[in-house]
Amino acid sequence: MEPVTEWIRHRFPTVENVSADTVEQWLKEKRERLLLLDVRSPGEYQISHLQGAVRVDPETTDMDHLVKNLGLEGSQDQTVICYCTAGYHGSEMAQKIHSFSTRGQGPEGPGPLNVYNLEGGLAKWANESKALVDSEDRPTSLIHPYNREWAELVRPEFRAPI
Q1: Is the pLDDT of residue 116 over 60?
Q2: What is the pLDDT of residues 51-67, one digit of tens each?
Q3: How far apart (Å, rounded) are the C-alpha atoms in residues 55 and 36?
Q4: How is the chain split into domains, by residue range?
Q5: What is the pLDDT of residues 129-156, one digit of tens each?
Q6: At 107, is the pLDDT very low, low, confident or very high (cuts 50, 70, 90)?
Q7: How confident is the model at residue 37 (pLDDT cuts 50, 70, 90)?
Q8: Taking the alpha carbons of 19, 21, 24, 25 in that order, is the dihedral positive or negative?
Q9: Neighbour-count burial of 55, counting CB atoms closer than 10 A to its CB (0-12 exposed, 13-18 middle, 19+ buried)
Q10: FRET pair for 47, CA 20 to 30 Å: which of 17, 123, 125, 141?
Q11: Which CATH number fits domain 2-158: 3.40.50.2300, 3.40.50.2000, 1.10.10.10, 3.40.250.10?
């Protein structure tokens, strides 16, 4: 997992990463101020996701529309956590949202959004046996590993069939 995580950090150097343990703690302490964005396909999301996560299409480019739909305009008290299977699409979305939130900011503006990527994505989350739910909001331990290569990052007992 570490070589992939390092590659993603190198690819998205401006994105702040947050550990699975930290997100788990934030979910306990300040759930009402967290917005979890699942940046995967509908099929992946149906198999499992973090409880309360909103699915966002990884191909989304209209950040104005996305930020408005999510109610993030001028919302500096909310923390956004983006995630995907291993961290690539989560980092990409975190970078897009952060860039959008800082565009045209002057000294009087509200400042950028607090946006992070879940380091290691759901692969790391599942490998650490952290809580997931399926499309019916039932607890599950399986994740869709995106493809055969990413499946190698997930312990076999947590891999859903591709």
Answers
A1: yes
A2: 999 999 999 999 999 98
A3: 9
A4: 2-158
A5: 999 999 999 999 999 988 888 899 999 9
A6: very low
A7: very high
A8: negative
A9: middle
A10: 17
A11: 3.40.250.10
Q: What is the average pLDDT score of the chain?
A: 91
Residue located via tokens 């104005």 = 64
Sign of CA pseudo-dihedral 88, 5, 98, 32:
positive
Lookup: tokens for 94: 């975190």
Give the integer Cα–Cα distance in Å for 152 and 120. 13
* Closest residue by Cα to residue 144 from 88, 90, 84: 84
Task: Report the sign of the C-alpha dihedral through residues 32, 84, 142, 157, in that order.
Answer: negative
CA distance 146 to 157: 16
Task: Give every CB contact of residue 65 below 8 A, 6+ residues apart in sequence.
Answer: none
User: In this structure, which amino acid lies at residue 61?
Assistant: T
With residue 21 as reference, give the H or E element that holds it: helix 20-29
Place 103 in a pLDDT band, splitting at 50, 70 and 90. Answer: confident
d(CA 67, CA 150): 29
Tokens of 121: 């994505």
- For 11, the token pair is 């690819």
